[in-house]
Amino acid sequence: MMDWTDSHCRYFMRLLNPDILLYSEMITAEALLHGSAKKYLHFNNQEHPVALQLGGSNPYKLKQSAILAEQEGYDEINLNIGCPSERVQKGSFGACLMEDPNLVADCVDAMINAVDIPISVKTRIGIDDYDSYEFLYNFIKIVSETGCSRFIIHARKAILSGLSPKENRSIPPLNYDRVYRIKSDFKHLHITLNGGIKNLDDCKKNLNILDGVMIGRHAYHQPWFLHELKLLDESAKYDQLKREDVIELMYPYIQDQLNQGNHLKHITRHMLGLYKNQPGARSWRRYLSTHAHNSDAGIEVLQNALKILPKAA
Ligand SMILES: Cc1cc2nc3c(=O)[nH]c(=O)nc-3n(C[C@H](O)[C@H](O)[C@H](O)COP(=O)(O)O)c2cc1C
After folding, report:
1. pLDDT tens-place string over residues 174-212
2. 148 in active site
3. How confident is the model over 105-116, as pLDDT tens digits?
4. d(CA 279, CA 259)
5. What is the atom index within ligand 1 of the atom nearest the CA of 217?
6. Which of 79, 159, 195, 255 is deepest in the core (most CB within 10 A)?
7. How many Å lie between the centroid of ligand 1 and the Cα of residue 1?
8. Which CATH number fits domain 7-225: 1.10.287.180, 3.20.20.70, 3.30.930.10, 3.40.1260.10?
């Protein structure tokens, strides 16, 4: 998620759950090839497994970007065919590409043939008036004929003019049945559902039918949920990890980042929701928001924030 799932965020999320696949923010092939690839591709080894999400519509540039991503050590490359923003549409990529499944197939084909890591596609159930089941079926059919077998489907259509990206994440209604039907028609494909997942029951229900769920906003706003996901595996032992343990596990990482000249606020902003729905959640949030902004703020800000939490939290 742009501006949210940066490397700091993913490092923190990995501490909460070792088993989930984490995704980068979308990086355009254009930016990667003409900017500082090292900077854009940077991630911490602790983040594995981690997928790089690419945006673009030029098969050659996506192929070159995929090669760079594989060299850097990413575990998967995901092509964004779901973003409805005006900027992205001007660049002729994102959700508007659903209208041109053959071009998407060319892009995917170029990447599949260039790297050994899996290529996945994140898409919507439709765009604008192209919102029939047949439209989605045709898109998945053409793209999967390249050999791409992993699809993440955000179960609402995108409206390409008149709605902001934020509105496009809530106004078009969710239609999970469309995604279930795709799975039933393409049993051999790995289908992940995205959109509106907020609790373990939602996960369980969808995982009974599909191959995966992708959780966006809820995981960011309530990161402890990522730890609770471990309860989905009934055979696994639910360890006794506490929120405070996760904070302490962040200290060496934070110190290292501070030593490199990074600011505390850029890391702690991803931790604000850690105590959501717990006693002291507001104090935690407020303390971090206020004190992490100082340019010389260090780990003591987190230590002090912990001290003001009620003992039971
Ligand atoms: C701030 C923000 C940035 C996002 N950036 C991306 C992005 O870069 N690539 C992408 O595929 N989806 C992006 N999304 C959409 C989410 O990945 C997801 O599809 C959407 O929020 C619906 O899932 P959710 O209900 O679990 O949040 C973004 C969402 C938010 C809130």
Report:
1. 999 999 999 999 999 999 999 999 999 999 999 999 999
2. no
3. 999 999 999 999
4. 33
5. 27
6. 79
7. 5
8. 3.20.20.70
